[in-house]
């Protein structure tokens, strides 16, 4: 009745629902219970974190944000309140464009990584890949480099073509940002861009160990492919198709640099952001 007071007269609703007007007004003026107050407070915090994540967080991540605020609530209750409020995190669409051209005659590096995605410190293992970004103004491709220890995107580049320069620029950005020591393992698929002479020379200049996936085995580079799936679920398919390439760049920049690296809680890192996880490592080892 309370939700429909602006649509129907109270007297009519009381008659239809067979409740007394005095009982209804007594209910309205009654002080809310402590349980009601607690639920209202939780609802407001859940709405805040849902909006603060641009509608990307589901109940597990929001529950962990509430735990950081020392609020006592179960994940099941968070999910129930989200359903009551119609809060549903972004869902991905099925769409795939092939970005790996392995039909070339360039040398293939051995699979040094061998699906060992564990790392004990930053800048020990990096993984790289290319993904397609839909845009009305024309095709776009994103090259990303991820640190396997922090799950941080340490380098990225957006371009309208899948050239060697695309992946080289992402690699150079990552190197400038992190200045890794020698023998870092750099893993990628066996695409022509990563197998090119220019890319191999750059890895040698940076004293990195090249590693490549086995032919047709997507699991060999699962971490970076999983990141690109998250990117598409939380950004690409949650918003209308980018109208221009400039709009695509600006929104990708905000997502990668301001949200994913600095803010988004990562379940494999104990629900802290990649940047916070990296900072915690350097504080421990200082």
Automatic annotation (TrEMBL):
SUPFAM superfamilies found in the cross-reference section: Ribonuclease H-like (SSF53098)
Protein name per UniProt: IS3 family transposase
Integrase catalytic domain boundaries: 118-282
Protein's job: Involved in the transposition of the insertion sequence.
Superkingdom per UniProt: Bacteria
InterPro entries named in the record: HTH-like_dom, Integrase_cat-core, RNaseH-like_sf, RNaseH_sf, Transpos_IS3, Transposase_IS3/IS150/IS904
